[in-house]
Design goal:
By secondary structure, this protein is an alpha/beta fold. It contains 10 helices and 8 strands. Bound molecules: nicotinamide-adenine-dinucleotide.
C-alpha cells in the first residue's frame, strides 16, 4: 500500500463515509494518520465506521449530517472546526440514486432529490468548507463524480447522470477559483463499483455484462477509488489539478485581464496586438468602435474585430557619410 507520511494529522472530511466507497476511503485515510470526520446521514453505520477506526488506533469522529440541508452542513463544518481545529481535505463522496429510470417516467420530486444529493450537496459542503481550507497549508477538494456524468453507457438515472456532469463542471470552477489559495480540486469518475448499493440495484447478469465492457474485465472495488483519492490528497499531487483548469488563476486576474490576454498558441513572430486571439476572448470583447469583421477560426462566425494599432514606419536606412 502507498505511504504518504505528510498526511499524518491532516483533517479529512469524508461524506457518505458510513458505507461503500466513502467508508473504505475513511479507513484508508485513517490508516495514513489522518484525523477523519465521518459525515453521513446514517448515524448507525457511520458510528460503526468511526468506532472501527478508533479501535484500530486511528482518530475518527462521526458528524451526523444531511448534506442536502444548508443548516445541517454549516453545523457539521463548525463542529469539525471545533473538534479538530481546522480542515485540510474535503472528499464529497455521498451520492447515488434509487432506481434505473427514464426522463419520461421520472417524477419531478425524484429528480429534485437526486440532484440535491449529488450536486447541491457538493456545493453546500464546499461553500461552507472553503474558509477553513484557505487556512490549510495544502487544501484539497476531491469530488466523486461518475462515469454516468460523462457518457450514457448503460441504463441509469438521467437525474443522476446530469447531476454528476454538474459535479465535474463545479470541480473545474473550484480548481480555477481556489488555485491561488493553494487548494487543488479534482474529481474522479468511477465506473460501476461493487458496493452493497450496487449489488442491490443490479442483477448478476447486469454485473457480468458491465464487467465485459471494462478493459480489465472486472468491476471496480471501493479500494480502487480510495487509493486514487489518497494520491490526490497527498503532496505528490500538489500540482495535480482538474485538467481543464490547469492554467491557475493569478492574482489580479479578472475579466479585464482575460479580455486582454492573447491566445497561448498565437504565432510568436507577430507583434502582440496582431496575434490571433482565442475564441473566448474574441467573442467576449466587442470593441467600442468596430473596425472590421474578422472570421473566428474556431466557430467560423464573423465578429467585430479591434482596430489595428497604426503601423510603425520602418526605420529608414541611415546613410552614413562616406569616410
Ligand atoms: N458504486 C458505484 O458503482 C458508483 C459508480 C460511480 C460513482 N459512484 C459514486 O460514488 C459515491 C459513493 O457510492 P457508493 O456506491 O459507495 O454509495 P453508497 O450508497 O454505498 O453510500 C452512500 C452514502 O451516502 C450516504 N448518504 C445518502 N444520503 C445522504 C445525505 N442526504 N446526507 C449525508 N449522507 C447521505 C448514505 O447514508 C451512504 O452511507 C457516490 O457519489 C456515487 O454516486 C458510485
Amino acid at each position: 500500500m502507498a505511504n504518504y507520511p505528510e498526511l499524518k494529522d491532516r483533517v479529512a472530511l469524508i461524506t457518505g463515509a458510513a458505507q461503500g466507497i466513502g467508508a473504505e476511503t475513511a479507513r484508508l485515510f485513517a490508516a495514513q494518520g489522518c484525523r477523519v470526520a465521518v459525515v453521513d446521514i446514517d448515524a448507525g453505520n457511520g458510528e460503526k465506521v468511526a468506532a472501527a477506526i478508533r479501535d484500530g488506533g486511528g482518530n475518527a469522529r462521526l458528524f451526523r449530517t444531511d448534506i442536502t440541508d444548508a443548516s445541517s452542513v454549516e453545523t457539521c463544518i463548525a463542529g469539525i472546526a471545533q473538534a479538530f481545529g481546522g480542515l485540510d481535505i474535503v472528499i464529497n463522496c455521498a451520492g447515488g440514486y434509487g432506481r434505473l429510470a427514464t426522463v419520461e417516467d421520472m417524477p419531478i420530486d425524484e429528480w429534485d432529490r437526486t440532484v440535491a444529493l449529488n450536486l447541491r450537496s457538493v456545493f453546500l459542503i464546499c461553500k461552507a468548507a472553503i474558509p477553513l481550507l484557505k487556512k490549510s497549508k495544502a487544501g484539497r477538494i476531491i469530488n466523486v463524480s461518475s462515469i454516468s456524468g460523462r457518457t450514457v453507457h448503460a441504463a441509469s438515472s438521467p437525474a443522476y447522470g446530469a447531476a454528476k456532469a454538474g459535479v465535474t463542471q463545479l470541480t473545474r470552477f473550484l480548481a480555477f477559483q481556489l488555485g491561488p489559495d493553494n487548494i487543488t480540486a479534482n474529481a474522479i469518475a468511477p465506473i460501476t463499483t461493487l458496493t452493497p448499493r450496487v449489488a442491490a440495484l443490479r442483477t448478476e447478469a447486469d454485473i457480468e455484462r458491465i464487467a465485459a465492457q471494462v478493459p480489465l474485465r472486472r468491476l471496480a472495488v471501493p479500494e480502487d477509488h480510495a487509493q486514487a483519492m489518497l494520491f490526490l490528497a497527498s503532496d505528490a499531487a500538489a500540482l495535480h489539478q482538474w485538467r481543464r483548469a490547469r492554467r491557475q488563476r493569478r492574482p489580479g486576474d479578472d475579466v479585464e485581464d482575460l479580455r486582454n490576454r492573447t491566445a497561448p498558441s498565437a504565432p510568436s513572430h507577430l507583434p502582440a496586438p496582431h496575434r490571433p486571439v482565442s475564441h473566448l476572448v474574441m467573442h467576449r470583447r466587442p470593441p467600442a468602435v468596430p473596425w472590421r469583421l474578422r472570421r473566428c477560426r474556431i466557430c467560423a462566425t464573423n465578429v467585430p474585430a479591434h482596430p489595428r494599432p497604426p503601423r510603425r514606419a520602418a526605420p529608414k536606412p541611415s546613410i552614413s557619410a562616406a569616410p
